[in-house]
Amino acid sequence: MAYYLKDLSFTEEGKKLKLSDEDRERFRLVYKREGDGWVLHDIYEKGGDYGDDCIVVPLESTYKGWEYIDQGVSFSNVIGSTYDSKPIDPDTNHEYRNWIELWEKTYKRVNNENPVIECCTDEMVYETRNQVEYQSNLHITRSKRGCIICGGHVIKGNLARSISIGSLVYIVPICMRHDHIKTSEYMKMGNRTFAVKLDYMIIPHNYLAQRPLETHEKI
Ligand SMILES: [Zn+2]
Predict the structure, then answer these.
(1) CB atoms < 10 A from the CB of 124, how many?
(2) Ligand 1 centre from 23 Cα, in Å?
(3) How far is the CA of 131 from the centre of ligand 1 (A)?
């Protein structure tokens, strides 16, 4: 059970979201304690297995808007994202659906049309060793499950790493193969790609000083 900080203040961009009650319920985010703050962990699911070191916050409290990332820009998976540990059902794609829905929803809001949902990479996976960049095509060998598109959370640059306060995490559509590359590997945008921006880490100290964690509802 995680503590639900439902009254946490909204970001400026979050205020503009104007979510329906249904979507507000659907896109609550789980942050997990790490050192001094909490880092993005998952989209909240009812009955999910969350510990006391997790908080649940409204999407509007951590949403930082969107941007287009240019073709060719390098990006990496966030270390410590929840994906690796989760069993998935390839037929329903259950664990991944919410992230891509969040991306899709935002895209529609901004562009007034349905997005094409496909892996946003250039199909390659990259690794730099001794200052030489190596690449190989990940899509050639994809299984059916590997073709599933999920809303990966990624950071810019070619170094998968844990990041700190003030950093952004980007939600972009990538396939399962690209979502599961090694931490030493990175990707590049195949096209100019729409990305949703969220706070990677939050430290709601002031809020918790007024309303300690224990006073919040657990969900
Ligand atoms: Zn891919």
Answers:
(1) 17
(2) 28
(3) 24
Token readout for 124 is 């390659």
Report the C-alpha gap between 175 and 121 in whole angstroms.
9
**Contact criterion met (CB below 8 Å) for 160 and 183:** yes
The string over 169-193, giving b where at least 16 C-beta atoms fall within 10 Å of a residue's C-beta and e elsewhere, is bbbbbbbbbbbebeeebbbbbeeeb
Listed residues: CB within 5 A of ion ligand 1 = 119, 121, 175, 178
- Host domain of residue 15: 3-215
Q: Which long-range contacts (CB under 8 A, 24 or more apart) does 102-109 make?
A: 102/27, 102/43, 102/59, 102/151, 102/171, 102/196, 103/151, 103/171, 103/172, 103/173, 103/194, 103/196, 105/23, 105/27, 106/66, 106/194, 106/196, 107/194
Select from 90, 89, 106, 81 the least CA-distant residue to 30. 81
The ranges of the chain with pLDDT < 50 are 82-85, 87
pTM greater than 0.70 (yes/no): yes
In this prediction, residue 3 carries a pLDDT of 95
Tokens matching residue 66: 């969107």
Q: Could you identify the residue written with the tokens 């709601």? A: 204
Asked whether 122 and 111 are in contact (CB, 8 A), the reply is: no
Count of beta carbons in the 10 Å neighbourhood of residue 50: 20
